[in-house]
TrEMBL record:
InterPro entries: Cell_wall_hydrolase_SleB, SleB_dom1. It comes from Niallia circulans. This is Cell wall hydrolase. GO terms for molecular function: hydrolase activity. Residues 78-175 form the Cell wall hydrolase SleB domain. Keywords: Hydrolase. The lineage of its organism: Bacteria, Bacillati, Bacillota, Bacilli, Bacillales.
Amino acid sequence: MKQLLFIAIIFTIISGSYIYIPSIANAETISKEETTTVATRKFAVDKKENVKASDESADITNNEKKLLARLVHAEAKGEPFAGKVAVADVVLNRLDDKQFPDTVESVIYEKNAFQPVQNGSIDKAADKESMEAVEEALNNGKENKELLYFYNPDTATSDWIFTRKVIKHIGNHAFSI
């Protein structure tokens, strides 16, 4: 098994792609930042610094948590706590979906993905409740695991977003797949 794992890691490093690793593989994350473990299905090899795999988990750095909290604050200010958690879950769910980038920063800054990036409100500090919502999303096992999009039906201007299947409404937001 160790030889197979070694070959798989070497292949992944050379090809720069993602592979699946059995959960019996024992790897650790070596990082200079504090991290929080969240559930995911990817095994990633960062050619520069670390290998991530252990019971199907990935790491979210403190900087990524702060960025996510700023997005939650900008997108869901005035919404109930459950809505803030669901906004954070949308970003985390996108990390596991092949049609989206695979880092928190890349998901958030993807072109036209989130209005606060376009209007600059993402640069404002997050409030305590938004930080708590991010922590809840990281620890809740993705309670809203199917959600990939959200919007305010009263203010959305994209016809495309209205074609998405709505799974739930929380506050002023519709959450969809």
